[in-house]
Amino acid sequence: MNPPAPTPESRERRWVLLLGLLAAAHVFVFSATFPFFSVVDEQVHFDLAVRYSQGNLPRALTPPCDEALPFIAIYGTIEYLWPPSSQPGGRIAPPPWTYPIQVIQQNLLAKRDLWREKVKNHEASQPPLYYSVAGLWWRLGRILGLDGGQLLYWLRFLNLPIILALVWVGWLTARKVFPENFFVRLAVPAFIAFLPQTTFYAINNDILSPLTFGAAFLLLLKFWESETPVPRLAAATGLALAASFLTKISNLPLLAVAGTFLALKTFWLLRDGKLRPAFPALSTLAACALLPMAAWMTWCKIVFGDFTGSVLKIQFLGWTHRPLAEWFQHPLFTPPGFWAFVRGNLASFWQGELLWQRRPLALPAMNWFYVLLTLALLLVVLVVLLKRQNGFSARQRPALWLGLAGLAAAFAFFALLSVKYDFQNCFYPSRAHPFFTSGRLLLGLLVPFLLVFAAGLDRALGLLGTTAKFTVLAALLLFMLAAEITVDWPIFPNAYNWFHQ
Asked: Dihedral, CA atoms, 106, 134, 40, 328, nearest 10 degrees?
């Protein structure tokens, strides 16, 4: 007896599973290729993960803990900031673990003293969710018998299940918003799988933001469509919003947009006379979202002195507040400055912020490609949304508007931070480049952003058939991957990476 033919839905699920596996393979290869520790504060994120694995919540800006220090001292390379020509003999020294044990011990003691004297963990007040998960993953690696460099890379490889889950959330969101559009439904998880964002290849709390707010975005859309929301959906939505807050403070503008979205939903319920039956769901959502946020803010106020825990970090970095009268003298309010701000955020959103030998690990031509393509497709979506005929459906419009509003709010938030502070002698941002241009801080928007991006690409390709659209998509993804391999190729043989452990 022949097995039943697969349904269209089962075939689509297989495609999504394949994209998830490709995403995991993509993240694995590049995570293993990059040595430790990247310039985007990977040492301090690693230290916090180890501290949380011990149940040790930091209460001050302290040096790395005793368990983390040997890993930092032994397994890190200076090549992110220094070229071989800057070193004695014009070459990078061999990895410390290749020396005799007596030499390793001497180097470890010297570096340990240096770190204890001069380095403090300025990320100590960051929200706890990522570090709690990473701490459990670290302990699991210990239980499995891993140690040394293998254990260190094991912590990085936590990003694999995260990216797998993110591909699935992206597909579920696209399927909900575009149930009739097969191209958009697969384009969103495909872009997640091939995104050349270097944040996915390091230990950091930014990696969790796309998943937590992506889940919140999907649940917000379900909540919006519910005629009378039920408490179970409300609880899930509230907890997802709380998880976004407990992952990264930079998600605050996204939460503000989500709050506005929920306020509009509450207004419609009031207008339609459905507020009373929806009240249990609304109160459940508020409790599940606000209580965890309030608990963490209370902790920060008690331990760090302010509700977000950011004051100590700002003091450590040496930033000072600019007088309000000087805000509008900022170069952001000039055409070149505004363009530098927009271009820097969009370019680093796609390609990341890593340096290698003190040079950006990104192709300038690809930066222009990503920025111009993004702006063009966002404009396409905005124009279609503003049209009264032949626009997006009633199901699609709230999702696309929410994605665009989130992007606008994030840019406004980073603009405010840029003009608010004098960055003094800080390396980044600096007085010479006084802009927040960190695309990784936009990653909470990844799912709604790619939903808008894929919708714009679908509209831009116009009357092309499905096969032609997928041909263009495949060519675009291969082009992105080829560019990423080209720029990262010199790092693959690096003696400090996973392949040489």
From this structure: -140
